[in-house]
Amino acid sequence: MESKLPDVGTSIFSTMTGLANEHGALNLSQGFPEFDTSSQLKHALSAHTLAGYNQYAPSPGLPVLQQEIAALVARRYQQDIDAAAQVTVTAGATEALFVAIQALVRKGDEVIVFDPAYDSYRPAVELAGGRTIHIPLCAPDYAIDWTQVSAAVTQKTRAIIINSPHNPSAKTLKQADLDALKALLNKHDIYLISDEVYEHITFDDAPHLSVLRDSELAARAFVVSSFGKTFHCTGWKMGYCIAPANLTVEFRKIHQFVNFSSFTPAQLALADMLRDAPEHVDELGLFYQQKRDVLVEALATSRFKILPSEGTYFLLLDYSDISDVDDVTFCQQLVEQIGVAAIPLSVFYDKPNGDRIIRLCFAKETETLIAAAEKLCQL
Question: Which residues pair with 11 in a beta bridge?
Fold first, then answer.
């Protein structure tokens, strides 16, 4: 059978986790927390399950969770949204991204993405009959050249996908970026998909500049978020999408045939958590900043060049002073010879630029971070 995605194979995340398991390596590759979700959230899930809330939820999500999401947006971004008309609960952020892309992209459309880019964007665009236009960002700052973006816009450009805080670079968009983006969208009548799954993980007192803060940007955007990243429960696959009512109508037409509704007792538990423990969201950035700082300090005597991490739970390391091999080979050697699993940055590029940079995930226990750093300092 002819493949619809002939260039897609096993993801690098599965490959590196498999290697880590095979060699008993410390796994700082795949982006999931080593620690468990909170007892409060687990007890809430158990209580709602035992109470019998185990059947289908409404396709857009339970109203109680939609309302708590709207309250979160109002509290964090000072914007009022219509919970029933604009919030759709999804089976994780990846589903939300897929559905948003399917709702927007038609055959022959172009979608601008920024490399290094999350690996789900391109396949979703291609399955919708479009193609991605890749604009590479360069180390160490991974800043967007908006003049270059403007030059890439054509009559076929349908949408731009942004991601902030950014995986894998750990950089964040600034107000000047959003101003330039808004001018571009308004000039060319382009839509926006804003991947904000790490929205509550920013560092050094810098706020997350959500698209939802700007009414003009929000009016033409799908904003995608992740409960898994926020509440350390990636295995629950719970996320949501916020969009204007007219875009949400189209989003839900597709969502109902991809994943009709999401895990009912988890929706209730997450609503409880948002209502009863707002401090979890408010303290998340500091929680991960402390982990970032532990890892950075532990690597201070290594031969790696440490790139700044402004958000997410990732840290980039430049190994140019250690080895001349390509980053995929280097990561394989790290697992086999040093006992640490990392992700090569080149896999996030349409056309790798030869940088010798790897990504570490620091959503791990302090002991794991220190042990991994000790091994990396041996190089």
Answer: none
d(CA 236, CA 267): 10
Give the span between the Cα atoms of 77 and 103, in whole angstroms: 26
Burial 327-343 (b: 16+ CB within 10 A, else e): bbebbbebbeebbbbbb
pLDDT digits (tens, 9 = 90+) for 52-107: 999 999 999 999 999 999 999 999 999 999 999 999 999 999 999 999 999 999 99
d(CA 265, CA 47): 8
pLDDT at 13 over 90: no
Which domains are assigned to the chain? 12-37+280-376 (3.90.1150.10), 39-276 (3.40.640.10)
Q: Which single residue is written with the structure tokens 């290697």?
A: 19
Give the per-residue pLDDT at 31: 84
pLDDT tens digits along 275-293: 999 999 999 999 999 999 9
Q: What is the pLDDT of residue 292?
A: 98
- Report d(CA 100, CA 282) in Å as an integer: 28
Residue of 334, 321, 352 lying closest to 28 (CA atoms): 334
Q: Is the dihedral of CA 346, 308, 174, 245 positive or negative?
A: positive
- For 72, the enclosing helix (H) or strand (E) is helix 63-77
Structure tokens given for 150: 């403007």
> Of all helices (H) and strands (E), which one includes residue 100?
helix 92-104
DSSP string across 273-337: HHHH-HHHHHHHHHHHHHHHHHHHHHTTTSSSEEPP--BTTEEEEE-TTT--S-HHHHHHHIIII
- The answer to whether the pTM exceeds 0.90 is yes
Cis previous bond, 165, omega within 30:
yes
Residue 11 reports pLDDT greater than 80: no
